[in-house]
Amino acid sequence: MPHAIVTNTERPDLVPVTARWRWEAFQQGRGRSLPEVTAAEAVGAASASLPRTFVLLVDGEPVGMASLAAHDLDTRPDLRPWLAGVFVAPHARGRGHAVRLVAAVEAEAVARGIPTLWLYTRSAEGLYARIGWRTVEMVSYREKVYALMRRDLSGSLG
Ligand SMILES: CC(C)(COP(=O)(O)OP(=O)(O)OC[C@H]1O[C@@H](n2cnc3c(N)ncnc32)[C@H](O)[C@@H]1OP(=O)(O)O)[C@@H](O)C(=O)NCCC(=O)NCCS
Q1: Angle CA 3–6–10, to nearest 5
Q2: Tell me, what's the pLDDT at 119?
Q3: pLDDT at 31
Q4: 73 near 139, Cβ under 8 Å?
Q5: Could you say which of 5, 30, 41, 47 is the most buried, measured as most Cβ atoms within 10 Å of its Cβ?
Q6: How is domain 3-156 classified at the CATH fold level?
Q7: Closest ligand 1 atom, residue 99 Cα
């Protein structure tokens, strides 16, 4: 099946799709409404800088996303930028799509001369650890504990 990766900046018609995924997977429980998340998603997609949200298309159908974001974990504004919002639709999981999306974000970071990326996760530490990410510390956020991970890209910079 042919795969393609696009951004919702070049494909603003995908903004409602990525906003719904972001809302359902990450923000629904934090008191934000879908219209609020969709409005913020549109602003981000239209921005000249970050965030950049990559969408994986399989036969033209959007099946997952991952973002390069300036900020993600509110309690660590000192760290930037972040791999954020990694999501694959349930029916498309287990086929390497998350790894493809992470690779797209890492390639964008390298193209921008960014030497280090950060992420925080509660559920997918093992996935990231296998593709070059390192857990730096465990952090408490909103009464849950997350792995704070970093990816060193300096060896890929020209
Ligand atoms: C986590 C998620 C993005 C994985 O997507 P996916 O497309 O199924 O992942 P991949 O197929 O690329 O997985 C790559 C590898 O990681 C493994 N893996 C997948 N999810 C994993 C998890 N939660 N923890 C550890 N390993 C995981 C896969 O088995 C696969 O291993 P393999 O290469 O040995 O076969 C997806 O389950 C999802 O969207 N979950 C809900 C949102 C979420 O939790 N996002 C991450 C927040 S940081």
Answers
A1: 150
A2: 98
A3: 87
A4: yes
A5: 41
A6: Aminopeptidase (3.40.630)
A7: 12
What separation in Å is there between the alpha carbon of 87 and the centre of ligand 1?
9
Q: C-alpha angle 76/151/1, rounded to 5°?
A: 115
Centre of ligand 1 to C-alpha 71, Å, is 22
Nearest atom (ligand 1) to Cα of 92? 7
pLDDT tens per residue across span 9-43: 999 999 999 999 999 999 988 889 999 999 999 99
Look at residue 82 and give its three-state secondary structure: strand
> For the chain, which residues make up each domain, given as ranges?
3-156
Question: Rounded to whole angstroms, how far apart are CA atoms 100 and 138?
Answer: 26
22 lines ligand 1 (CB under 6 A): no
Q: Give burial (CB, 10 Å; 0-12/13-18/19+) of 128.
A: buried
Contact predicate 8/56, CB 8 Å: no
